[in-house]
Amino acid sequence: xxxxxxxxxxxxxxxxxxxxxxxxxxxxxxxxxxxxxxxxxxxxxxxxxxxxxxxxxxxxxxxxxxxxxxxxxxxxxxxxxxxxxxxxx
Length: 89
Known about the structure:
Layout: E1 10-15, E2 21-26, E3 30-34, E4 47-51, E5 59-64, E6 70-75, E7 82-86
Antiparallel strand pairs: 1-2, 2-3, 3-4, 5-6, 6-7
């Protein structure tokens, strides 16, 4: 996992339906921010870890899938692939 600040420009973000987890996407990496019960007010004291996102040309977007158990990512370009990362927990 990682901690501390992000080393790249954030290009997309998505908050989970329960407000406890935040996804961040940069051009190269994806991150999961565990907010816990504090929601967005807990932002200064959160746990951040890198996600094993698919290699994409200039990552642009990230979102939770419909059931909140998967993460969708897409890069820039003509007809980019929509990638799915299934969550274990």
